[in-house]
Amino acid sequence: MKPIAFVAFCEDVLKVKLTNGQRVLALVAIDKVDPALLDDADRELAGKLGVDVLAPPSAQMVLAIVKGARIGGSYVFGALYSLWRALTADVSTLAPGEVAVALVVAPDLRLARQVLRYALGAAESVPAIAQLIESKTSDGFVLARHEGRNVSIECLPATRGGSAVRGRSLVSAVLSEAAFFRDDSAAVNDVDVFRAVAPRVLAGGLVILESTPWTESGLLHDLFQRNHHEPQDAIAALCPTLVMRDDERTRLIVHNEYLRDPENAEREFGAQFIFGGSGLFFGPELLRGAIVDEEPYRSKGSFESISIGADVGLVTDASAIVAVGTRGDTVTLCDFEERRPKKGSPLKLSSVVGSFCSFAERYDERVIVVDHHELEAGKEHLPAGFTLTPCAGGGDAKTARFLKVRDLLRQEQLRIPSRLSKITNQLSLIVSKPKPGGGTSIVLPRRAGTHLDVASAFILAVDSAVGGGFGARFVRAMNAMADREKQQPTGTTQNIWRDAMNNCFLSD
Fold it and tell me: Is the Cβ–Cβ distance between 107 and 180 less than 8 Å?
């Protein structure tokens, strides 16, 4: 392919409509256009991105993009850039038969292959490029260029990103989601990967680091701090979502996420690094504000409803059960119990289930919300009239439960009696960990023979209390209707089912 600028390649050859943010960043960082020559609107946008100064030659070999979600970073500056370099890079200096590589490295192979699929899809969308594809595998494809040279686009996980590139000549290197790089031992290896690839990129090519941010540490953070607005050894761009893609649907998504979880939204869409590297999910101020000078509640008392959550552990983890009471918009921790196994003496499931049911019975409650672990086995030991009901499964449902509890803390609608405040010790250890590509995962570290089991049970109980456990509420309503049927018979089971369903839906 004849030499062609990157923006022209995207828009004229691939027929990809770049957003204004994508186009301005590509013009300045890849096509080397002096920002002073842009029109007023584009020059203002370059200023927002932090690429409003013409980079010296020492900074024109590395592009660091700190990005918000949904900006097309992996697609435009990962896949399309790699394809453009594979087709247009000067490879005349290579030895006969040597295959140059446009390399993509990501935290894991799944993410790396996603970028590769974008590049392959773009290549196959243009017949003149599609006919150049000589071979393809799940980890790469080879382009046979017209002058007789072959260039491949390949992907690797960060675990192999340092060692696997030795001896290769690279037309480009894209380090996708670089803030999340780890090696086989889970140690951060972003610098090692960068040092392995940077010297091997041929003239005219870039090492592009594009990632949603994480903590105020690591290679991406250091490059950004040193070069944003003042390029020295890299061009560093700050690319919040709404600066790069300001359409109505994206604005709505960002708005809703800021309402749901402002801290995560600031990182994921505002492209802001997490201050000080802290990932604590429940801050100390939130937890301290929930503690009240009240005694534990050993019975239902004046609460409108009681919800029970439990976490079952038998060998290495503890078993814990928690009761919370609801009165109006306020949820109060009533009490909890924890049983820890001794070394070489695991807990017996039958004994744990029996004690759980005795605990629930104190509150005149027959439904216990648990996770799926040991659920079916536990049912075999249930006394008559008691029910174990599972919480919603999956990582997203888990994150939603934790967010719900944090929202209650912020709204001062969650109360923890001072005699039970040691539960905050476990809650304070819970960590939120950003995921590459967006989203948050919740991590419960193991501490002193516990996997924060009381905290886990507490989260399940609160979630059920504020509407997260439809199954628990349905069973609870069924039991209540059955008790009413015994006292004032209506003569039909159908009425019990109908009333139970109505009660559950009305409570949502």
Answer: yes
Beta bridge partners of 337: 321
| The two structure tokens encoding residue 366 | 């027959």
The CATH code of the domain at 6-245 is 3.40.50.300
What is the distance of C-alpha 113 from the center of its chain? 18
Mean pLDDT value across the chain? 86
Contacts of 497 (CB under 8 A, 6+ apart): 478
- Check whether 401 has a pLDDT greater than 70: yes
Q: Take residue 356 and report the two structure tokens written for it.
A: 């759980």
Residue whose tokens read 């005694």: 295
- Residue 505 makes CB contacts below 8 A (sequence gap 6+) with none
Tell me how far the alpha carbon of residue 87 is from its chain's centroid. 34
What whole-number distance in Å separates Cα of residue 29 and Cα of residue 369?
54
Spatial CB neighbours of 356, under 8 Å, sequence gap ≥ 6:
310, 319, 321, 368
Percent of the chain with pLDDT over 90: 60
Using CA atoms, how far apart are residues 242 and 117, in angstroms rounded to an integer?
26
Contacts of 214 (CB under 8 A, 6+ apart): 179, 180, 267, 273, 274, 434
Averaged over 405-434, what is the pLDDT?
A: 88
Q: At what angle do helices 219-227 and 190-197 cross, to 10 degrees?
A: 70
Residue 164 has pLDDT above 80, yes or no: no
Question: 284-468: which CATH topology?
Answer: Nucleotidyltransferase; domain 5 (3.30.420)
Cβ burial, residue 474 (10 Å; 0-12/13-18/19+): buried
Question: Are 272 and 49 a contacting pair, CB within 8 Å?
Answer: no
Q: Judge whether 409 and 290 are in contact, CB under 8 Å.
A: yes
Name the residue type at position 444.
Answer: L
Q: Which residue has the tokens 């773009």?
A: 122
- Number of Cβ within 10 Å of residue 194's Cβ equals 22
The residue ranges of every structural domain in the chain are 6-245, 284-468
Question: What's the average model confidence in pLDDT over 300-305?
Answer: 91
Residue 473 has pLDDT above 60, yes or no: no
Q: What order of strands is seen across the sheet that includes strand 305-311?
A: 291-292, 414-417, 330-339, 319-327, 305-311, 367-370, 387-390
| Alpha carbon distance 404, 331 (integer Å) | 12
Three-state DSSP at 431 gives: strand
Higher pLDDT, 67 or 257: 67
- In this predicted structure, the answer to whether residue 255 has a pLDDT above a threshold of 50 is yes
- In degrees, rounded to 5, the angle at the alpha carbon of residue 33 between the alpha carbons of residues 191 and 245 is 70
Q: Mean pLDDT check: name the lowest of 116-130, 191-205, 210-224, 225-239.
A: 210-224
Element containing residue 207 per DSSP (H, E): strand 207-211
> Token pair for residue 67?
């990005």
